[in-house]
Structure formats: C-alpha cells, structure tokens
Backbone:
C-alpha cells in the first residue's frame, strides 16, 4: 500500500503542470468569473436601491413586501426589526428562499449590522479601517452581510430589493424591535 502511494506521488511530481491539469476529477461548483459578472451587474443597480429609514418603513407597509434578516438565528432571535423574516445567509438556496418569499416579484427590504449604532451586541459592526497610508480618507471597509445578501437575492432572481442606507441609533423611536 505504501509503495503504491509513493509511486503515485512520484508520478505526480514528474508530471508537468499541464499534465496534472488533465487529471480527471470533478470540478467544484464554483465559478468565480460568473460571480464577478453578477457583482458588477448588481453594483450600479444597487446605488438606486439604497433608501432612508422613512422610505424603508413606508415600503414595509406595502403588499408583497418582506423585511429580511440574514444574520445568525441566535442574533436575529435576540433582537430584530419587528415583523422581520429570517433566513441565515449561510442557508441561502432557491428552495429556502421559496419558503419565505415564494414570488420573485416580492419586494425585499434588507438591513445589516453596519446600519445600527449603540447596539454592538446584537448588531455587531463588521468594519475595519484602511491601512495607515489611506488614513486621511477614514473610509470603512464593510465586511457586513448586506452586500452579499443583495447579490445573493439578485442572483436567485429576486431583483426587487432595497437596502437601508441610513445609520440607525438604538434610541430611534421610529423603530420597533422584537426578540428576547
């Protein structure tokens, strides 16, 4: 057995890169080029879909609208905007989306943790500062879930999404929260 493994390794080491690339095995179900195209398609459209809390709140009253929270179930259960539906970002799939929004014409209102201030326990910030040579700009690099949520919804055919663009303070009286 050890001899077979050693011979296999030696054979691979003697192969050129092009010969190794010819080895037959199933490729992963990831296509970065297609993902990059999707991100670029969503990028410009997204700019027209950023809305204030007042617009967010007004849209939430319309028919065929959901407020979607893609944080972990534990964080969503502890505190979320009233009447929010939950779908963990890691569970995004066509079949799971259909369970909460059976119609791709549904308006999805999304928010992320970077839109809340004064509530770092349940709406943890996922930002970091740029390196010192960029310090004068003081621009946050957002690593939050809003962008991937927007891209995922669009990629699954849900193109009627709006994102909260206003920073919300925990003490803001316009918002009703639910949770434990």
Residues:
């Amino acid at each position: 057995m050890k001899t077979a493994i050693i011979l296999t390794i030696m054979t691979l080491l003697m192969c050129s890169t092009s010969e190794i690339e010819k080895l037959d095995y199933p490729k992963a179900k990831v296509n970065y080029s297609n993902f990059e195209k999707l991100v670029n398609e969503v990028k410009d459209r997204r700019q027209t879909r950023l809305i204030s809390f007042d617009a967010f709140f007004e849209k939430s009253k319309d028919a065929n609208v959901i407020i979607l929270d893609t944080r972990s179930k534990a964080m969503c259960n502890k505190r979320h905007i009233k009447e929010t539906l939950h779908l963990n970002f890691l569970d995004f799939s066509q079949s799971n989306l259909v369970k909460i929004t059976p119609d791709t014409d549904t308006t999805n209102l999304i928010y992320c943790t970077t839109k809340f201030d004064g509530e770092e326990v349940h709406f943890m910030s996922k930002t970091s500062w740029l390196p010192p040579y960029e310090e004068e700009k003081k621009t946050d690099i957002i690593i939050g879930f809003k962008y991937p949520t927007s891209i995922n919804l669009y990629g699954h055919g849900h193109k009627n999404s709006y994102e909260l663009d206003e920073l919300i303070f925990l003490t803001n009286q316009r918002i009703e929260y639910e949770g434990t």
